[in-house]
Design brief:
16 helices, mainly alpha, single chain
Length: 394
């Protein structure tokens, strides 16, 4: 996979090409949110730049190099991060059974989410690395480390800021001050993004609105719960007018989200009855599954966030042969994946498209259900043990 990405680095890494072009425009004193300027750059897919302006600072040094050299450096950076991330998951979040197959499985599950993150060159690799460092610090009870990582993780696509409220679900790590400081830091970041170029903010907002509208409705590359609701409404009620179809899909999505959050909150209350030392790691793993189920936009490569939770379910919660069944289900898309000539600028897998793309979402739902049953069952056993004669809370 690395060899493939290196050989075709000038024709893939299309997301990095967008970052490079936006940073180059900013370095020239021009507006990277102006799509007329951006799309005039050769060999660039017509995708608007919709990240806050400070993100261009990350890529400005690379614009001093010609694109092939810059792409090779970025490929090396994200390859190193992904390798480290997989080993980090294996060492810190694989549970009691640290089997040697876990790193290999991590590279293959969720429709090859990890390789897709590599081939696109998307910042999701850096975002996920920061996010898992934040969750690791939270599991250790280190609130400053958690806030210090989750805020920059949210700097790219904003939505990971939802994790900032995660400490509030457990009394032993519930620190309103730390959460408030994180919120203020992020608000300062957004204010600085606006202050850098107030005249460009209108274009930035338009690009964000375009991406949210377009990509949240397309399940080809966005197999999210909201995209599923749009798909279901279009299949079951094809005669609805477009505006009404959107409203019905939004209502269906809202019902799904409320159901997931309500059931997850019941699980969180059970986790709150256990000490954070015991409950920390299961809580952060479980939270990633909830996040993936409720987000209106969840790109196919974004499923790398939930890889550790799925492997924890398969390797720790389930026992053979059920663990093997889940592993096979997670790997089921592999025989259907095919790599085509990347001359078109995309490396596509047949299994990623249309209804098949929802396999990742289905696997998250299955893992969330199994995780919920495990955590609730474990809490009930703990309560019974504490209530048995001659036992103590220890």
């Amino acid at each position: 996979m690395l060899g493939f990405a290196f050989w075709f680095r000038e024709r893939i890494l299309w997301d990095f090409r967008l970052y490079y072009a936006a940073a180059w425009l900013y370095g020239q004193g021009q507006n990277p949110f102006d799509n007329q300027l951006l799309f005039s750059i050769p060999n660039l897919d017509p995708m608007p730049f919709s990240y806050p302006l400070p993100i261009t600072f990350l890529f400005l040094p690379l614009t001093k190099l010609v694109y092939p050299a810059a792409a090779m450096i970025w490929l090396g950076v994200i390859s190193s991060l992904l390798c480290w991330l997989v080993l980090f998951w294996w060492r810190q979040f694989s549970g009691s059974r640290r089997d040697a197959w876990v790193p290999l499985l991590a590279l293959l599950v969720f429709n090859l989410a990890v390789p897709k993150a590599l081939l696109t060159g998307n910042v999701v690799t850096l975002e996920t690395t920061l996010m898992w460092l934040a969750l690791f610090f939270l599991a250790k009870g280190n609130l400053p480390g958690f806030v210090g990582c989750v805020v920059p993780a949210a700097a790219f696509k904003l939505s990971p800021l939802l994790f900032l409220g995660l400490p509030l679900v457990h009394p032993q790590v519930r620190r309103w001050k730390a959460v408030g400081v994180g919120g203020l830091l992020f608000a300062g970041y957004l204010a600085a993004s606006y202050a850098l170029a107030p005249g460009w903010f209108k274009d930035y907002r338009a690009n964000v609105a375009f991406n949210v509208k377009e990509w949240s409705q397309v399940d080809v590359f966005n197999p999210s719960t909201y995209a599923l609701s749009r798909r279901l409404v279009s299949i079951l009620l094809p005669g609805l007018p477009p505006n009404l179809s959107v409203q019905v899909a939004g209502l269906l999505y809202g019902v799904m989200v409320v159901a997931v959050l309500w059931l997850s909150w019941k699980v969180a209350r059970r986790l709150g009855e256990r000490g954070w030392t015991e409950a920390g790691r299961p809580t952060v793993l479980y939270a990633t599954l909830v996040y993936a189920l409720i987000m209106p936009r969840m790109s196919d490569y974004s499923y790398i966030l939930v890889v550790p939770a799925a492997l924890y379910v398969a390797g720790t919660i389930l026992r053979p042969p059920r663990s093997l069944y889940l592993a096979v289900a997670l790997l089921l898309p592999l025989p259907f994946v095919s790599f085509r000539d990347p001359g078109s600028g995309k490396v596509e897998g047949d299994f990623f498209f249309g209804l098949w793309g929802y396999w990742s979402l289905l696997m998250v739902l299955v893992c969330w259900h199994l995780f919920s049953r495990h955590l609730v069952g474990h809490a009930e056993i703990s309560v019974k043990r504490r209530g048995a004669p001659g036992t103590t809370d220890d």
